[in-house]
Design a protein that fits this description.
Length: 376
């Protein structure tokens, strides 16, 4: 068969082929898959062919009557990426350490043999599960739940007393002192994590310059029950940096933002800019308005906000300003605002701060995109 120069896949499984596996299989230099499973091949696994098969990605010799040890040379199959299946044979001896040189993607299946000794812990062995070595009574070590040191009790000359001592030691478990140390260490770790969380919280609160929503009326209040409390949108969008409770202070903040358009990273901070001059409202009005979440995506959260005049708008919160400078953001938004198309929602205004970006557009009541694409 190896006289076929381009032979890549040789699958002779589920037949009644018998005898030795020929050494000449190594002459199939282009072979990628060799599957001889569920036949009556006997004798030892040949030693020499494997170095010649430089393109082999799968080797399956399972469910035969092969004997002897696993050849070290199988570890030279550097091209192997699929399965090395030698299960359900009569192979004996130790598992060769050379198999650890195989690529980590290789999956071993050495079940139901007569292999013995400790499973190597190097290379690709670390990626194998316990099922790869089941039904080999003399095998021990990870990943099997069988400690190799425990096998000493079955050796000749081992006294029953020493075996009982090992069992008693295994039942003792952790000493009280060690348990106390572990408990104290766990408590200290939890306390440290708590301190870190509190520290980060206060640092973040300080970063917001004490921005508070307590000067806005809570949505849904009326009459005497309308108290100065946290407003719905302020808590939802976060305290937008640059907003002050006093109208004159807010105007100064916006003026300062416009004057800073030519300066550094904080340029335009706290400025609400109307793209459509005929559609104007104050930041205070936006923050006082009622709002609820329309949806979330990778581009942020979208809220429906009903302004004081009853006009609904969609507010998309893009999160932190990040490293994008005000001029870059404003240029992009102004370009989007110039787009006029019946299928594109009109952008009305935007807000930029170093830790917040908002896009205010028309609210369209036609449902979401998923419903439009997929029907009901």
């Amino acid at each position: 068969m190896c006289n076929l120069p381009r032979l890549q896949n040789l699958d002779l499984s589920d037949n009644s082929l018998a005898g030795d596996i020929p050494e000449s299989v190594g002459n199939c230099s282009q072979l990628q898959r060799l599957i001889l499973a569920r036949n009556n091949f006997s004798g030892d696994i040949p030693v020499t062919p494997w170095k010649k098969l430089k393109n082999l990605v799968q080797l399956d010799l399972s469910a035969n009557v092969l004997e002897g040890s696993i050849p070290e040379q199988i570890g030279d199959l550097n091209s192997l990426t699929g399965t090395l299946n030698l299960s359900f044979n009569h192979l004996s001896g130790k598992v060769p350490k050379s198999l650890g040189k195989l690529p980590v993607t290789v999956s071993f299946d050495l079940r139901s043999n007569d292999l013995s000794g400790e499973i190597p812990q190097t290379g690709s062995f670390s990626n194998q599960g316990p099922t790869a070595f089941l039904n080999n009574p003399k095998l021990c070590g990870f990943p099997l739940q069988k400690d190799c040191t425990g096998s000493a009790s079955s050796e000749p000359g081992a006294s029953p007393g020493s075996a009982r001592q090992r069992v008693n030691r295994s039942k003792k478990g952790l000493s009280p002192g060690l348990i106390i140390i572990i408990t104290v260490a766990d408590a200290a770790a939890v306390a440290l994590i708590g301190l870190v969380v509190v520290y980060v919280y206060w640092k973040k609160k300080d970063k917001n310059n004490g921005c508070s929503c307590t000067l806005k009326r809570k949505f849904g209040g009326n009459g005497n029950n309308e108290r100065l409390n946290s407003c719905c949108l302020c808590w939802t969008l976060g305290c937008v940096k640059g907003f002050k409770s006093d109208d004159s202070e807010m105007e100064e903040s916006e003026k300062g933002g416009r004057e800073g358009n030519g300066r550094g990273e904080g340029e335009g901070e706290g400025e609400l800019v109307a793209i459509d001059k005929g559609f104007s409202f104050e930041l205070d009005e936006l923050l006082r308005a009622s709002a609820y979440v329309l949806g979330k995506s990778g581009l942020g959260i979208v809220y429906k906000v009903v302004l004081g005049n009853g006009v609904p708008v969609a507010v998309r919160r893009l999160g932190e300003g990040g490293e994008q400078r005000y001029k870059e953001f404003a240029t992009e938004v102004q370009a989007i605002g110039k787009v006029k198309h019946p299928n594109i929602v009109k952008l009305r205004a935007y807000y930029w701060a170093h830790d917040e970006k908002l896009l205010i557009s028309d609210f369209v009541s036609n449902g979401n995109l998923a419903n439009a694409l997929r029907g009901n």
